[in-house]
C-alpha cells in the first residue's frame, strides 16, 4: 500500500500497490502491519457499505464525539465520489482546514480519516457505492456534523449538491460544531 500524506496533519490518501500480470492484479485493501508501520489505526470494529442512487447527493459532514470518535478508511467500490475531510482537532496546525479527493471504483484510492475530523462526500455518478472501515461503533448520541456550505471552512465542491438530507442541510456552522466537540472532549 502507498500512503500519501495530505496537507492535513495525520490524514492520508492510500493507493493500492498492485501486483499483477495479464490475468489482472492482486493488492491489499488493508494490512495491519503496514498501517501500524505508518503510525495509523489498526483496530477496526465495523465495515460499513453505503449505496447512493443519484449523482449530486451529499452525505456529511459527520463525526462522532469522544469517546466514540472514530477513524475511517473510505473506498469507493462503484461509481465515483468527491471525498472531503475537515480537521476539527483543537490545537492542530490544520484546524478548520479541509482536503478533498476523487475516490472512484476506477482509481481505487482510499481516504484515511483520523479521529477529530468531520467527513463527507458528494457523489459524482449515479449508483455510487462506498465501503468504510471504522474504528468505533456507531453511537447515535455522539453523532454530530458540520454544515457542508459554511463559508468559515470554504469547501469547494466540484459539483453543487442537489440531494441533501434535512439532517445534513441543518448541521451547525464550524464554530458551533467545534464548541460542541471541545465541550464533550473535556467531559
UniProtKB/TrEMBL annotation:
<dbReference type="InterPro" id="IPR014710">
    <property type="entry name" value="RmlC-like_jellyroll"/>
</dbReference>
<comment type="similarity">
    <text>Belongs to the dTDP-4-dehydrorhamnose 3,5-epimerase family.</text>
</comment>
<comment type="subunit">
    <text>Homodimer.</text>
</comment>
<feature type="site" description="Participates in a stacking interaction with the thymidine ring of dTDP-4-oxo-6-deoxyglucose">
    <location>
        <position position="138"/>
    </location>
</feature>
<keyword id="KW-0413">Isomerase</keyword>
<dbReference type="InterPro" id="IPR011051">
    <property type="entry name" value="RmlC_Cupin_sf"/>
</dbReference>
<comment type="function">
    <text>Catalyzes the epimerization of the C3' and C5'positions of dTDP-6-deoxy-D-xylo-4-hexulose, forming dTDP-6-deoxy-L-lyxo-4-hexulose.</text>
</comment>
<comment type="pathway">
    <text>Carbohydrate biosynthesis; dTDP-L-rhamnose biosynthesis.</text>
</comment>
<dbReference type="GO" id="GO:0000271">
    <property type="term" value="P:polysaccharide biosynthetic process"/>
</dbReference>
<dbReference type="Pfam" id="PF00908">
    <property type="entry name" value="dTDP_sugar_isom"/>
</dbReference>
<dbReference type="InterPro" id="IPR000888">
    <property type="entry name" value="RmlC-like"/>
</dbReference>
<feature type="active site" description="Proton donor">
    <location>
        <position position="132"/>
    </location>
</feature>
<protein>
    <recommendedName>
        <fullName>dTDP-4-dehydrorhamnose 3,5-epimerase</fullName>
        <ecNumber>5.1.3.13</ecNumber>
    </recommendedName>
</protein>
<dbReference type="GO" id="GO:0019305">
    <property type="term" value="P:dTDP-rhamnose biosynthetic process"/>
</dbReference>
<dbReference type="GO" id="GO:0008830">
    <property type="term" value="F:dTDP-4-dehydrorhamnose 3,5-epimerase activity"/>
</dbReference>
<feature type="active site" description="Proton acceptor">
    <location>
        <position position="62"/>
    </location>
</feature>
<dbReference type="GO" id="GO:0005829">
    <property type="term" value="C:cytosol"/>
</dbReference>
Amino acid at each position: 500500500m502507498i500512503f500519501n500524506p495530505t496537507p492535513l496533519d495525520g490524514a492520508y490518501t492510500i493507493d493500492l500497490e498492485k501486483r499483477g500480470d495479464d490475468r489482472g492484479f492482486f493488492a491489499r485493501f488493508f494490512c495491519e502491519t503496514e498501517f501500524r508501520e505508518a503510525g495509523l489505526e489498526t483496530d477496526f470494529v465495523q465495515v460499513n457499505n453505503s449505496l447512493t442512487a443519484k449523482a449530486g447527493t451529499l452525505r456529511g459532514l459527520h463525526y462522532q464525539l469522544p469517546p466514540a470518535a472514530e477513524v475511517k478508511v473510505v473506498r469507493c467500490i462503484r461509481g465515483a465520489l468527491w471525498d472531503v475531510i475537515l480537521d476539527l482537532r483543537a490545537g492542530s496546525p490544520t484546524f478548520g482546514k479541509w482536503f478533498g479527493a476523487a475516490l472512484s471504483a476506477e482509481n481505487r484510492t482510499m481516504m484515511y480519516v483520523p479521529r477529530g475530523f468531520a467527513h463527507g462526500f458528494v457523489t459524482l455518478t449515479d449508483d455510487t457505492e462506498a465501503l468504510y472501515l471504522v474504528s468505533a461503533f456507531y453511537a447515535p448520541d455522539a453523532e454530530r456534523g458540520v454544515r457542508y456550505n459554511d463559508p468559515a471552512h470554504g469547501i469547494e465542491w466540484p459539483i453543487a449538491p442537489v440531494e441533501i438530507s434535512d439532517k445534513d442541510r441543518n448541521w451547525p456552522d464550524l464554530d458551533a460544531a467545534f464548541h460542541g466537540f471541545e465541550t464533550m472532549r473535556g467531559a
